[in-house]
Every structure is written in C-alpha cells, then in structure tokens.
Amino acid sequence: MYQYQCLNAISEAGLSLFSEDYQRTEEMAGADAVLLRSASLHETVFPEKLKAIARAGAGVNNIPLEDCAEKGIVVFNTPGANANGVKELVIAGMLLASRDIIGGIEWVKAHAGEENIAKTAEKQKKMFAGQEIEGKKLGVIGLGAIGVLVANAALHLGMEVYGYDPYMSVDSAWNLSRHIHHVKNLETIYQECDYITLHVPALDDTKGMIDREAAGQMKDGVILLNFARDLLVKEEDLIEALETGHIRKYVTDFPTAGLAGRDHVIVIPHLGASTEESEDNCARMAVREIREYLENGNIMNSVNFPNCDMGKKGKNPRITVLHHNVPNMIGQFTALLAKRGINIADLTNKSRGRFAYTMIDIEDTDSSGIAEELSKIENVLKVRIIL
Ligand SMILES: NC(=O)c1ccc[n+]([C@@H]2O[C@H](COP(=O)([O-])OP(=O)(O)OC[C@H]3O[C@@H](n4cnc5c(N)ncnc54)[C@H](O)[C@@H]3O)[C@@H](O)[C@H]2O)c1
Ligand SMILES: O=C(O)[C@H](O)COP(=O)(O)O
C-alpha cells in the first residue's frame, strides 16, 4: 500500500486515478509521495520515506530541488498542463490593459439604481475609451508551453509578434507560428514592442531581469504583463517607471503589498492556472507521474533527475538507484550483483547534471539484502527494490 499527501487542493479528476493500492494521508512522515501546487517546501524537513513530489503545475521555485535530489526524492512537474488556462488569462490581461473595462464596470456599479444611468453612461463613456491590440507589437519573452500559445493567439488577433528564447525546445519550435519574428536579443523586444509579456521560469538569471535598465530601453507607454513570477521584476524600478508613465500599465498575476491597489496596475490573485480544465490536466499528469515512478521506477517530467523509462516492470524485482553522477557507479552495482551470482536482464543509466539514475531488472526472484548493500556504496542517494 502506498501513501500520498496533498499539500494543496488537487483535482479529483487526478486523485481518482490512484488505484486501491493508494491511501491518502495527512502526515508527510508516512507519505511515499506528495502532491502540491504553490505551497512552499523551502522550510520542510523531508522524511526518510518520501520518494516523490509532484508539482501539479509548471513553476517549481517553491521546491528546493537540489535538496530533494540529495535526499533521493524525485520532483516532477506537469509541463504544459495549465498552459492554455494561462494563455487565455494573458489575452484577457492585454485587453483589460488596453480598454478601461475595469474602470467602466466600476462606474456602472457606483451608479447602480439610477433611473437615468443609460443616458449618463453615454455622456461619461469617453472616460473609459481605450486602444485596440490589432496591429500593435507584442514581445513574448520565453517561448515554452505558455509563451508559444500566447504568441500564436496574439498573431491570430492581428498583432505583430516578436519572440525571444535562447533555449527554446524543438517541440516549442515546431508549435510556434513561422509568422513570429524570432529575435536574438532582449533589446529588440524592449525597443520594438508596445506590449511585453514574460513567460520564463524564476531562475538565477531571470530573477530581477526587468529592472531600471531594462525598463529604460522599453518604448514610452509600454504595457508589461507578468503571468510568470513576481521575482522577475524589480518592484521599486517598476514603480518608478509606472510613476513617470514610461510603463503605462503593469498586469500581473502576483499580488504584492507594494502593488495591490496601485494606479496603473492590474493585479490578479494568481488565477492563471485556476480553471477546471487546467486543474484537471495538472492533477491527472501528476498522479500518472507518481504511479509510474512508484510502481515501475520510470521517471517522466522530472525537474531534478533525468527522465528514464524501462517500460512496465516484469515478474522479477526491479532495482532502482538514485545516485551522484560520478565515475564507476554502474561498475560497483554490477560487481555487487555478480558477487551474489545474480544475472542482469536489463539495465539503464541516465544522468542529469550532478545526479544520475540507474534501473536494473534482475533474472532472479530473490532480492533480499541487495538494497542494504547498495545503499552502503558512497554517492548512492536512495535504493528501491520494486517487487
Ligand atoms: N500564472 C500562473 O498561474 C502560471 C501558470 C503556469 C506557469 N506559470 C509560470 O510561467 C513559467 C513558464 O511556464 P511554461 O509552462 O511556459 O514553462 P516552460 O518550461 O514550458 O517554458 C519556459 C521557457 O522559458 C525559456 N527560458 C528560460 N530561461 C530563459 C531566459 N533567460 N530568457 C528567455 N527564455 C528563457 C525556456 O527555454 C522555456 O522555453 C513557469 O515557470 C511559471 O513560473 C505561471
Ligand atoms: O507555475 C504554475 O503552474 C502556476 O503558477 C500555477 O500555480 P497554482 O497551481 O498554485 O495555481
């Protein structure tokens, strides 16, 4: 029986995919797997039994990935599963920033109950006039699952789209419309675009990327959208640019004390992925990843270990070893099995940065004591025998 814990509300469409071999627990100490959305794990002391963490979503800056890897905990996310939900909200954000829809609706609310409201509205509506997005230039920074969808959708709305992503995947390249200008530097985006939208993860080299210098290169009156992470923008520099009107509007999915209620800022309470469809998609993918790892040892969509797949486990035990990516690990594993007279039916080893993963199918039914012996090898992080 496997135990799982949910640290955030995870859609039933996903949880119902757990078989009767899985039981929900409220205690992390007993959990084999944890599912979460944006709950922070940076202060968490991880229990020995924990094997997997699945982030039902894209961003993993709420999880200490290296720390988890050192403890032999595989962390997964659900790439692309909420991208459409975010794309739709970004388009809404662009429209809200272009037309004073919010101001207009508030005006109507304030005049509720007035007999002559229709007549007054016709007189007052010039206060809420705006501009159209068709024909304007949009810069998309980060052409991953969300960036590509936003870029293609904006193109269909008649915008001229510039995209920047030096690390773009082949999949994204396939999905991106060829009508998008693929630019090689951020300066072009800053200097050309009327709207700029951020779709990069919060990493060391992206945190604070929108600072005074970046803002200074942008066009006067630019509209900036941030549905990626608050940390990408230096708030004091942003506020300065908003006060001078250089940045005309900032639309963000991340409320902060400094921005909530401020003029020229539209703050949404992190709703990008909060749609029925995205929540269901993320939960389903997260549960499938956990089941595949716990039951077969296969890793797909990990963000701290390499992906590795040996198919469905056969009738004999499968040994899985998470370890540091250093020489002679496989030599030591196979020597240990050879010493016991155990033949290997199949073996896969994959590495990713400092970490690696080895899966071994043995031609023997008796695996007793192997896990203990393998665990003693230096640089081994976690051993599992899947029976
Ligand atoms: N608002 C929300 O609810 C919501 C929902 C999902 C994701 N997000 C955020 O959006 C981010 C992007 O999500 P995604 O699903 O598109 O992820 P993704 O991994 O598919 O795409 C990220 C893209 O950013 C690119 N990138 C990385 N560093 C870059 C850099 N320095 N300059 C330019 N491009 C760079 C990568 O090459 C990749 O193509 C997530 O990391 C998360 O922080 C927010
Ligand atoms: O990175 C993500 O997937 C989003 O920020 C969504 O976060 P949420 O699952 O907490 O809504």
Can you walk me through this structure?
With 387 residues, the protein is an alpha/beta fold. The protein folds into 3 domains: 1-82 and 273-304, NAD(P)-binding Rossmann-like Domain (Rossmann fold, 3-Layer(aba) Sandwich), CATH 3.40.50.720; 83-96 and 131-267, NAD(P)-binding Rossmann-like Domain (Rossmann fold, 3-Layer(aba) Sandwich), CATH 3.40.50; 306-387, 2-Layer Sandwich (Alpha-Beta Plaits), CATH 3.30.70. It contains 13 helices and 16 strands. It has a 7-stranded parallel sheet with strand order 8-7-6-9-10-11-12, with helices on both faces. The chain has a 5-stranded parallel sheet with strand order 2-1-3-4-5. The chain has a 4-stranded antiparallel sheet with strand order 14-15-13-16, with helices on both faces. Strand 10, helix 10 and strand 11 form a beta-alpha-beta unit. The model has no long low-confidence stretch (mean pLDDT 98). Residues 37-38, 57-59, 82, 270, 272-274 line the site of 3-phosphoglyceric acid (3PG).
Task: Provide a short characterization of the protein structure.
The chain is an alpha/beta fold.
What about the largest sheet?
7 strands, parallel
* Secondary-structure-derived class: alpha/beta
Q: Any idea what the CATH superfamily of the largest domain is called?
A: NAD(P)-binding Rossmann-like Domain
What does the oligomeric state look like here?
single chain
Order of helices and strands: EHEEEHEHHHEHEHEHEHEHEEHEHEEHE
How many domains make up the coordinates? 3
Radius of gyration: 25 Å
Got a strand count?
16
Bound molecules: nicotinamide-adenine-dinucleotide, 3-phosphoglyceric acid
**pLDDT average, as an integer?**
98
N-to-C CA distance:
13 Å
Stretches where pLDDT falls below 50 for ≥5 residues? Answer: none
Approximate shape? elongated
Number of helices: 13
Would you identify the CATH architecture of the largest domain?
3-Layer(aba) Sandwich
Instruction: Identify the CATH class of the largest domain.
Output: Alpha Beta
Instruction: Going across the biggest sheet, name each strand in turn.
Output: 8-7-6-9-10-11-12
Helix content: 25-40%
- The proportion of residues in beta strands is 15-25%
CATH topology type of the largest domain:
Rossmann fold
EC number: 1.1.1.399, 1.1.1.95
GO molecular function, one term: NAD binding
Pfam families: 2-Hacid_dh, 2-Hacid_dh_C
Keywords: NAD, Oxidoreductase
